[in-house]
Amino acid sequence: MNIKSKIGQRIRALRLQKGISQEQLALKAELDRTYMTSVENGKRNISIQNIEKIIKALETTFEEFFKGFDLIV
Amino acid sequence: MNIKSKIGQRIRALRLQKGISQEQLALKAELDRTYMTSVENGKRNISIQNIEKIIKALETTFEEFFKGFDLIV
């Protein structure tokens, strides 16, 4: 799986764990909702600043976010 | 410290641990040397694809790269 899809899958899994919608996550992360949808669908070569916004909105850490990340295939 | 500087500092620390130069890392990561310099200097809102190239060139993993990352201040 390419890196854009891996990131999207990870964000979606954590978002669903928190029980919030894409719209709620986009609002909290101060990102556009359609952009958030495209990130989750693995369509975006997302920047580190936007990753940080999403990680903060998910109330997690970089360490947690990337734990086991390399095992996603 | 802002996220761009944190990423740059982390890359530099791991590169120095491996004992390779910016030029060698840039070559291995198939990235431009001056771009690599600006990333290490915290000047770039680096994309996930370029982070992946650098992590692979450093022969580490996302999990290792971001371990303790949130503690960098």
Automatic annotation (TrEMBL), chains A, B:
Q: Which Pfam families match?
A: HTH_3
Write down the InterPro entries for this protein, in alphabetical order: Cro/C1-type_HTH, Lambda_DNA-bd_dom_sf, TransReg_Diox_bact_type
SMART domains reported in the protein's UniProt record: HTH_XRE
| Domain of life assignment | Bacteria
Supply one GO CC term from the record: cytosol
Q: Does the keyword Transport apply?
A: no
Q: Which GO terms describe its molecular function?
A: DNA binding; DNA-binding transcription factor activity
Q: Please list the residue ranges annotated as the HTH cro/C1-type domain.
A: 11-65
Query: Which CDD domains does the protein's record reference?
Result: HTH_XRE (cd00093)
Arranged from A to Z, the UniProt key words for this protein are: DNA-binding, Transcription, Transcription regulation
Annotated protein name in UniProt:
Transcriptional regulator
